[in-house]
Amino acid sequence: MADARPFHWEFSPPPVQREVLRVAGGRTLNGRVQISGSKNASLKLLAAATLTGERCRFTNVPEIEDVRVMAETLRDLGVVVDHPEPNVYEVASGDVDWLFVPLEAAAKMRASFILLGPLLARFGRVIISNPGGDRIGRRPVNLHVEAMRALGAEIEYRNGYYFARAPGRLRGTDVTFPVVTVMGTENAILAAALADGHTTIRPAAQEPEVDALIGFLQKMGAEVHRTAPDTVEVEGRKRLRGADQHVVSDRIEAGTFVVAAAVTGGQVTLDGAPCEHLGAFLEVLEEAGVQLHCERETIEVRGAPPGSDAYRACDITTAPYPGLATDLQPPTAVLLSQATGTSLIRETIFEDRLEWLGELARMGANVEMIDDHRAALTGPARLHAAEVEIGDLRAGASLILAGLAAEGTTTIHGGHHVHRGYENIEQKFVDLGAQMERVAEEMTTTPA
Fold this sequence. Notes:
The structure is a single chain. This protein has helices at about 40-50, 65-75, 105-110, 115-125, 140-150, 180-190, 210-220, 250-265, 280-290, 330-335, 355-360, 395-405, 425-430; strands spanning about 15-25, 30-35, 55-60, 80-85, 90, 100, 125-130, 155-160, 160-165, 175, 200, 225-230, 230-235, 245, 265-270, 290-295, 300, 315, 340-345, 365-370, 375-380, 385-390, 410-415, 435-445. The longest helix is centred in the middle third of the chain and has 14 residues, at about 250-265. The protein has about 450 residues and is of the alpha/beta class. It folds into 2 domains: about 15-35 and about 250-445, UDP-n-acetylglucosamine1-carboxyvinyl-transferase, Chain; about 40-245, Enolpyruvate transferase domain (UDP-n-acetylglucosamine1-carboxyvinyl-transferase, Chain). Strand 10, helix 6 (about 180-190) and strand 11 (about 200) form a beta-alpha-beta unit. The chain contains 13 helices and 24 strands. A 4-stranded mixed β-sheet has the order 22-23-1-24. A 4-stranded mixed β-sheet has the order 2-15-17-16. About 30% of the residues lie in helices and about 25% in strands.
């Protein structure tokens, strides 16, 4: 695993420009909004491009911080990453000989660990840092590591880094996860695409972003298919070719704007919204009394006037797809704070994801924490302006929603988190009639 280029274990995160968002409440949102490409799909597609030396081209890529970090990480590896125009990326992974994904990348973005599978499969070795990301609970990567070991990789963990090597090619096998893991499934698929022989992955995550990755790999010449809802089978190939892919729309961003219209009593049309990927979420909103119409890639939302008591309490439980996405739990909670009655929220994916409700309570929401995984929201609550702190990407977007529904101007610290996953979110809200601004805060050494 030696490499001619030295690296150091000592690391101090670079300064991050913190930002504050100021959101004025009491404004009804109206108009149309274009939903951007999926963050989660884009990151995995960029990683998949390292499976070939030929050029891959991606369109509808969101202009967000996580994509920028992934592109920089690939460039540091020696991959050619071009950004010829907005929302377009071209990737060519020729002879990549610096197979080291440093702590700098992992501290900013957990998704950097998706590079383990493709780099290991194509180049036979990689050193990759234990990842960081949002503080929403334990998201161990041991499932990814064990999947690589099942495929024949030798992996050691030392000083915060995984040293992985594959003597010869990886070997096809049965990869069995103890629980459903989205990125674990994707890492296993990427590694198996160039492995020797047949690989069966179960239970395989069913998220639409996983199927988008499978579709792209098929364009590259990979033999990978979903043979059952929870099963993906891969027949490894010795090499893959370049391909083009249009990134699917971001279902989490779509859900965020649906709730924005509902809690402000507005009428908003979402263009490019992936209706077929939002089934469980839209069912919850209809149960809560939100008027909406979904057809192909358009969602029309007609919100009820604030104070009309039009929304009804309902219980929600997050679950792997096709269940209610954990990333849609925070915006849904904002809506339920405005519903009549008591709603029970059960979070089954991340044990710390309900912590953000403490900030919603600071704005007047009636929140009762039952335990780490359950909370009760009683409404309708009269939300008011407050100073709140963003702890993670999805909670940040949801605090914006709460600010839009509140009386007065809410100050949201840590606004830079939101730009990891939402393209031009302030302008999109302003175009719908919101009043909000982003200003710089003091410098800090805390990673985004």
